[in-house]
Each structure stands twice: as structure tokens, then as C-alpha cells.
């Protein structure tokens, strides 16, 4: 069970599940999640997987299990759409909480109505690590969007845990949708595009670390969209 230390942990946002198994010099990158608890001298960890956005597909949960067991996390659970008391208590005491990808709007509606979202966010503020995969990464940010038939962009609020607008795997269209979303959201808002196979870490001091590949940042400044490239640390890829 997690300690009562209330230090905010970094939030890990990945374009897809590749980074769950990615290694740097034969060392699993995912161990960074466990290292977040180093000051607490923890040896046992609990992990929850929220799969409301992808219809509770067991295939992704099996990927989640493989990812957790490789970093020696053996106490894990899939949180269903209709959680019982034990599911909520488990989530409440989880050290790692992963939001899987899928249908953004559907997943958002489910977790807002079943106590899962409020419980997960409360766990984060009590010291849990959050991971968002693909659509789960977007959900942890400020805004999501869709298009009407006339190609108008319509924005909707997300979980708003990360003060960024997130997009993933759209590097080939120059992050067009992300730029429109940043522009529509207003001045000083920031969007980050995450390449396929890549990710970012949003840290408690609000700095952003790119993971594996460069991330693209857009800032709405004085009604102009400024582009920046966030380069990852110079580690050796394996």
C-alpha cells in the first residue's frame, strides 16, 4: 500500500504501448515509474489499468500485465466500467494508474460517471504515477477535439490533469489538428505532439522531457502559433 508521502509524481504520456517494453542500454525505460518512489524506499507496488476507452479489451490488459511484471509489479487489476467497492479501494491505493487508449469520448463519459476518474486523480495527488497511452494521453490533457461535416474543429474538456493539449501519431500531417486546437483554446495554451513509438514525461515542475523521439510543442503566443522541438536526452537506443 502506498505511503502517506504526498509528493506529486511525473506523468508519463505515450503515443502507443511500444515504450512499455523499450530498453535503454538493456535497461527497461518503464523502470522510471518505479524510480519515482525511490525516496520512499518502497519494494512493493500496486498497479491499476483503466480500459473504459477500449471496451475493456482483455488483449490490452494482457499487455499491461506483461509490462508490469517485467518491472516486478505483481499486484495489479483491471478496473471495470462498473467497479465494485473492492475495485475502488484498489484504485485508491494504487501506485501506478494507466489509462488505455481507444474511444476518447466514450471512455471519458464512463469514468466520469463511475467514480473511477475522481478516485484516480485523488490517487495522483496522494502520490501515484499516471500513465496515458494514445487516447489515454489525450484524456489526461486539457482538450480533445472532433470534426463536423464541414471540417470545423469542436473542442471538449478532458481530465485536465496535465496543462497541455496532447496529440499523438499525427506527425505526417504536420500536427494540423493539434495546431488548430491550440489556436482555438486561446493565448498561452500549449500543445504537444508525440511521435509514433515516442512519449513525453510531464514533470511536477512543469518541464517536459521527450522520450525516445523528439516531441513537437506548439505555443499560442500573441495570436501566433510558435513551434518548438523538444529533443530527448542523448541516451543510446536499443
Distance between the termini: 33 Å
Compute the number of helices.
Answer: 7
Q: List the strand order in the largest sheet.
A: 5-4-6-7-1-12-13
Radius of gyration, Cα only, in angstroms? Answer: 17 Å
Mean pLDDT: 89
- The helicity comes to 25-40%
Largest sheet geometry: 7 strands, mixed
Structural class: alpha/beta
Give the overall shape, derived from the CA principal axes.
globular
User: What amount of the residues lies in strands?
Assistant: 25-35%
Low-confidence stretches: none
DSSP E strands, number: 15
What sequence of helices (H) and strands (E) makes up the elements?
EEEHEHEHEHHEHEEEHEEEEE
Describe it for me?
The protein has seven helices and 15 strands. With 238 residues, the chain is α/β, with parallel strands linked by helices. A seven-stranded mixed beta sheet has the order 5-4-6-7-1-12-13, with helices on both faces. Strands 10-11-14-15 form a four-stranded mixed beta sheet.
Amino acid at each position: 500500500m502506498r505511503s502517506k508521502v504526498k509528493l506529486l509524481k511525473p506523468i508519463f504520456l505515450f503515443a502507443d504501448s511500444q515504450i512499455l517494453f523499450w530498453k535503454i542500454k538493456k535497461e527497461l525505460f518503464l523502470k522510471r515509474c518505479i524510480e519515482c518512489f525511490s525516496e520512499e524506499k518502497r519494494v512493493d507496488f500496486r498497479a491499476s489499468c483503466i480500459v473504459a476507452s477500449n471496451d475493456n479489451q482483455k488483449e490490452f490488459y494482457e499487455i499491461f500485465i506483461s509490462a508490469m511484471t517485467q518491472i516486478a509489479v505483481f499486484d495489479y487489476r483491471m478496473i471495470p466500467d462498473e467497479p465494485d467497492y473492492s475495485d475502488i479501494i484498489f484504485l485508491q491505493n494504487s501506485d501506478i494508474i494507466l489509462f488505455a487508449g481507444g474511444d476518447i469520448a466514450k471512455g471519458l463519459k464512463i469514468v466520469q460517471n463511475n467514480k473511477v476518474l475522481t478516485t484516480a486523480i485523488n490517487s495522483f495527488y496522494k502520490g501515484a504515477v499516471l500513465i496515458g497511452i494514445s487516447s489515454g494521453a489525450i484524456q489526461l490533457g486539457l482538450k480533445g477535439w472532433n470534426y463536423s461535416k464541414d471540417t470545423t474543429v469542436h473542442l471538449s474538456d478532458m481530465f485536465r490533469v496535465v496543462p497541455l493539449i496532447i496529440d499523438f501519431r499525427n506527425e505526417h500531417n504536420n500536427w494540423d489538428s493539434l495546431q488548430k486546437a491550440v489556436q482555438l483554446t486561446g493565448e498561452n495554451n500549449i500543445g504537444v505532439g508525440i511521435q509514433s513509438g515516442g512519449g513525453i514525461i510531464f514533470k511536477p515542475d512543469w518541464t517536459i522531457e521527450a522520450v525516445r523521439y523528439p516531441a513537437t510543442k506548439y505555443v499560442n503566443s500573441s495570436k501566433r502559433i510558435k513551434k518548438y522541438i523538444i529533443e530527448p536526452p542523448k541516451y543510446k537506443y536499443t
